[in-house]
Predict the 3D structure of the following.
Amino acid sequence: MSDITASPGRPAELMDLIYRRQRHVYDLSRKYYLLGRDRLIDQLAPRPGERVLEIGCGTARNLVAVARRYPEASLFGIDISAEMLRTARQTVEREGLVSRIRLARADATRFDPAILFGVPSFSRIFISYSLSMIPAWESVLAQALAWVRPGGELHIVDFGRQEELPVWFRAGLRRWLALFHVSPRDRLETALTEFADRQTASLCRFERPFRGYAQYAVCRRAG
Ligand SMILES: C[S@@+](CC[C@H](N)C(=O)[O-])C[C@H]1O[C@@H](n2cnc3c(N)ncnc32)[C@H](O)[C@@H]1O
């Protein structure tokens, strides 16, 4: 497993602070409110031999599920937090997936897969509940679309606008998420449409499952 190529600085310190203790209860607790992750994994559908990258892979919960679901895919994960990666590495080893899942510490706003992993691009890139924790989230979209191969797909799941949920629920959820430095990206669909207009992505498919609690986007990179 490779390690970081550029110093990630303060965002890394903040994520390490948040996850130093939480990583131990992360998978158990997030199961109940990071909705839509398994739906994304179902729809990822890489072909045998294709490379799949998760940006902001956390504990590797999703990568392990993808490895089990698609036994012939090669998997890669990056995360800025050394603490999260400690748990991710333990999980990958425990699950006997070291030969299939490669992990590296990197900042999603500026990374190069050739330096991190010695590969030029990916057939699938996915981002699960990480854009809402990254202030420069639009730079992450640009990076993802740069590193997905032409004809490949970028899948994103994250908190949505909760527009069909009661106002009190939405307000309470957002206050609670802010305590964890999480900001739902209400402009995600607009930003992806702008990328599509600039021909970086073909028009994206966009869904708002769970009454808008979550948002799910799939963009195919123009070939
Ligand atoms: C809410 S967790 C999501 C983890 C995992 N994707 C999941 O679905 O369970 C957000 C993750 O994004 C990572 N992260 C935050 N900022 C990042 C950045 N700039 N570059 C890479 N990873 C980042 C955090 O360290 C954390 O592991």
Q: What stands out?
A: The chain has one domain: 10-221. The beta strands are 51-55, 74-79, 101-105, 122-128, 148-159, 205-207, 214-220. The first strand starts at residue 51 and ends at 55.
